Structure formats: C-alpha cells, structure tokens
C-alpha cells in the first residue's frame, strides 16, 4: 500500500472528515499529506535525497501491521493518522500556522520527547517504538498527552 492509499484509508475511518473539516476528496487528502511532508522536511538540513511530493504519495508504507522507524513514509503516515484522529477542531486546517504548529509539535514529540517544546531529553517517542504499527501509534498518543494532567 502506498502512502496516499494508507492516509485515505485512515482518513475515511470514523468521523475524521467532520472533525477535521476537510472533505475526503483525493486532492484534499494529497494536500494534507503534503502539509505533513513539508513540516517533516523542516527537521532536516540536507533534503536533496527527499522525493518530490508527488512521488512521496506513491511510496510504500510498511504492510501487515508493521512499522519501520527508519522509513520516512511510515513516520509521515503515523503522524498523519494520529493528528487527523485526535483533531476535533474543523477550523484548524483553515489556519496554516495552527495546523503547521500541531504537526510540528507531533513530530517534535516523536523525535525529541513529550517535553520537546521546552527541552529535549534525548528520548523521543520513536526511541521507544519497535516494528508494530499499533504499538508505535499507542506510544506516540501516550507521549502526546499533557505531561501534568494528573496534578489537578
């Protein structure tokens, strides 16, 4: 399965279309993926080897419930899945800075840990992941929970 098909499949699950405020049309989903890819690229200084956005859509994700943290397509697919599932603000996608901030925060937690906006403890969610997609998703979702939620 390629990245586009994976993201479309995930986006059609549940009520994501209403929660995200974007119709599940091919051009819309491709545009959403491109937004995730643009943010992903900002984490790297040398982007020469990165494919263009159109080629990225056709690149394969790991199949059979597997997850490869060395595969950028799997990383983008995971963050797409988590962000579009967690978002219940249909206006978020209408404000470029806000959706970019949400995606950036999710990648920061993935790469640098739950307190990434303040400091990096060197242990991102990715360092806790193995090769199971559902496990990787659960780890990222857990890391995204507010760090001090049990204080109140």
Can you describe this structure?
α3 packs across α6 (96-112). The model has no long low-confidence stretch (mean pLDDT 93). The longest helix has 17 residues, at 96-112. The chain has one domain (3-145). The protein starts with a helix and ends in an 8-residue tail after the last helix. With 152 residues, it is mainly α. The chain is built from seven helices and no strands.
Task: Summarize, please.
With 152 residues, the chain is an all-alpha fold. The protein is 53% helix and 0% strand. It has one domain (3-145).
Task: Write the SSE topology.
Elements: H1 3-11, H2 16-20, H3 26-41, H4 53-58, H5 72-86, H6 96-112, H7 133-144
Helix and strand content put the structural class at mainly alpha
Report the portion of residues in β strands: under 5%
The geometry reads as globular
Order of helices and strands: HHHHHHH
Q: Which percent bin holds the helix content?
A: 40-55%
Mean pLDDT: 93
- The total of helices stands at 7
Q: Distance between termini?
A: 44 Å
Number of beta strands: 0
Total number of distinct structural domains = 1
Q: What's the Cα radius of gyration? A: 15 Å
Which stretches are poorly predicted, pLDDT < 50 over at least 5 residues?
none
Q: Largest sheet, if any?
A: none
């Amino acid at each position: 399965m390629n990245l586009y098909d994976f993201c479309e499949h995930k986006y059609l699950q549940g009520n994501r279309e209403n929660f995200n405020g974007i119709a599940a049309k091919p051009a819309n989903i491709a545009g959403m993926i491109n937004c995730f890819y643009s943010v992903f690229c900002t984490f790297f200084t040398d982007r020469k080897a990165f494919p263009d956005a159109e080629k990225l859509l056709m690149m394969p994700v790991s199949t059979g419930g597997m997850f490869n943290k060395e595969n950028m397509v799997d990383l983008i697919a995971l963050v797409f899945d988590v962000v579009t599932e967690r978002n219940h603000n249909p206006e978020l996608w209408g404000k470029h800075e806000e959706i970019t901030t949400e995606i950036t925060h999710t990648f920061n937690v993935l790469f640098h840990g739950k307190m990434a906006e303040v400091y990096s403890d060197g242990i991102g969610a990715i360092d806790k992941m193995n090769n199971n997609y559902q496990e990787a998703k659960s780890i990222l979702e857990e890391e995204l929970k507010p760090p001090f939620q049990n204080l109140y």
